[in-house]
Amino acid sequence: MNNNYTSTRDKNISISAKNAIKKGFADDGGLFVYPELSQLKIDINKLNNLNYQQIAEIVLEKLLPDFSIEEIKNSIDQAYSISFDTTDITPVVNVDNFHVLELFHGPTSAFKDVGLQMLPQLMKHVLDEDNKVMILTATSGDTGKAALEGFKNLEKMSITVFYPHNGVSKIQKLQMQTTNGENTEITAIEGNFDDAQSNVKKIFNDQELKKELGPKVSLSSANSINIGRLIPQVVYYFDSYMQLVKNGSINIGEKVNFTVPTGNFGDVLAGFYAKQMGLPVNKFVVASNENNVLTKFFQSGVYDRNMPFFQTVAPSMDIQISSNFERLLYYKSGEDTGYVKGLMDELESSGRYQVSDEVLASIKEDFFCGFSTDDEIEDSISEVYKKDNYLMDPHTAVGYKVMRDYQKTGDDTPMILLSTASPYKFVRVVAKSILDDVPEDDFEVMQKLNKVTNIAIPKNLANVWNLPILHDDVIEKDQMRDYVKSKVEEEFYDKD
Ligand SMILES: *Cc1c(COP(=O)(O)O)cnc(C)c1O
C-alpha cells in the first residue's frame, strides 16, 4: 500500500506525512490529501470503552503512517493531557432531540484548539536536529491565540502573530496581548485582516528574506490547510459517536448525522475523512452564515466568490473561499487531479467555477448545505436557551438553524451538532439574545451572563482581564517583513 500523501492538483506528487506537515501545501498550489482513504478502515467495535487519547492514537496511526507510535503517543500526551478543562476533551451534551459536541474546552475556548494543540507537537517530530522554525500567522481573532497557546515554549520553534489593529474583539485582543511564553511575538498592524494575510503570503515567498534569515531558520505557517491540523479533528467524530454508544443514545453500527458550522471547510472535511474510514454517517449538514457561497454552490453547482462580503456576528466563519473544499472536490471527482486543477485555475482567473452534474450529485449524497442570517442567529440562541436551558455561541447557533431546516426534510437520524466556541467568547451577541439590558463593558457583560445563567465562565476568559499586557506593538503593514526579521534575530540568534 502507498503510504504517502499527494497533491489535489497533481497525482504524481508523493510526499510523506511528515514532509507534508513541514511544507503545509504543495508547490503546485494544491493541498496535500491521502489517496484511497477507504483503505484506512477503522473497526468501530474496537473503540468500545476507549478514551479520547486512545481513540486519537488509533486514528493518528492510520493517517500518519511515518510517525512512530512513540511519537504519536508523545504528541497526544502533550496536546491533550492538561490543557483542556475536561478529561473528556470534547464532551457530548444531550439537548432536546439532538446532541451537542462541545469542542471549546481547550485553552482558548474555541474549537481551533483541538488542531492547534496537536500541530506543534507533530511538528516537533518533523524538524531536523539543527532546524529552527518561525511560525507566521495572520489572524482575524481565534486562530492567533489558539496558535500561540499551541506553540508556546516549544524548543526550536517561535511564533509571530499579526492581527488587524481595530479588527478583533476586545476579548480576542486581550487574549493575545496577555500571552506569556519565551517564544511568542504578537503585533497589531495598521490595516485589515486581508492586509495581514497577503503580507504574510508575500513574506513566505520572499527569497531575499530567506537568505537573510540564514540556512537554519525556516518560516512556516499554522494555516488550517495543514494536514497536521486537519487530522486531529478526525478524532472527535469517532469519539463523539462512541460517547453516544456509551450513553445508550445509539446502538453501535447505527448511522448518525453531524451538523457543522463551516468557514474554511476544515472541520466538516475531517468528518468526511472519518466517514471514509468507516464511521457510520448518513449526512453532514454544512452551515454557513450570510457569507453563503457554499449554499449557492449546492443549489447550482457554481462556486462563485464574486459576492458581497458580510461582517456577521459569527466572525470566525466570515469566509468567501473555503480552502479545504478543494480536498472534497478531489475525492468527489474520483481523485481526478487534472479536473481539480482546472477548476482551481478558473477560480483564480475568474473567481468562479462550475462542477459537473455527477460531481454535484455525489457531493449531495453526503452533504446538505444551508445558511443562517444574523437575526436568525440571535433567535436561535434565545430559543434554545429558553426552551432547553442550553446556551449556544453564535457560530453554534448558525449550525442549529440549518440543522432544524434539514430536519424538516424528514430525516430523523440521530443528530450531533458541533459547537465551536464557548458562549463567553462572543459574549456580547449572546447576551443581547437573552438579556433585556446589556452593559457597555464586555467584562461586565460576562459577569451578568454568568449571574443570570449560572454557566461557569471558562478560566482563561475570566482571568484575561487581570493579566499584564505583554505585547502592545503596533506597526504599519509595510513593516511586517522587517518585524519578522528582527524577531527571528531576537529569538534564534541573540538568545544563543
Ligand atoms: C474556525 C471556526 C469555525 C469554522 O471552521 P472551519 O474549519 O474553518 O470550517 C467555526 N466556528 C468557530 C468558532 C471557528 O473559530
TrEMBL record:
It comes from the Bacteria. It holds the Pfam family THR4_C. SUPFAM superfamilies: Tryptophan synthase beta subunit-like PLP-dependent enzymes (SSF53686). Catalyzes the gamma-elimination of phosphate from L-phosphohomoserine and the beta-addition of water to produce L-threonine. The lineage of its organism: Bacteria, Bacillati, Bacillota, Bacilli, Lactobacillales. Pathway: Amino-acid biosynthesis; L-threonine biosynthesis; L-threonine from L-aspartate: step 5/5. It catalyses: O-phospho-L-homoserine + H2O = L-threonine + phosphate. Keywords: Amino-acid biosynthesis, Pyridoxal phosphate, Threonine biosynthesis. PROSITE patterns: DEHYDRATASE_SER_THR. This is Threonine synthase. Its EC number is 4.2.3.1. NCBIfam families: thrC (TIGR00260). Its cofactor is pyridoxal 5'-phosphate. Residues 101-336 form the Tryptophan synthase beta chain-like PALP domain. The modification N6-(pyridoxal phosphate)lysine is found at K112. Residues 4-80 form the Threonine synthase N-terminal domain. GO terms for cellular component: cytoplasm. GO terms for molecular function: pyridoxal phosphate binding; threonine synthase activity. InterPro entries: Ser/Thr_deHydtase_PyrdxlP-BS (IPR000634), Thr_synth_N (IPR029144), Thr_synth_N_sf (IPR037158), Thr_synthase-like (IPR004450), TrpB-like_PALP (IPR001926), TrpB-like_PALP_sf (IPR036052).
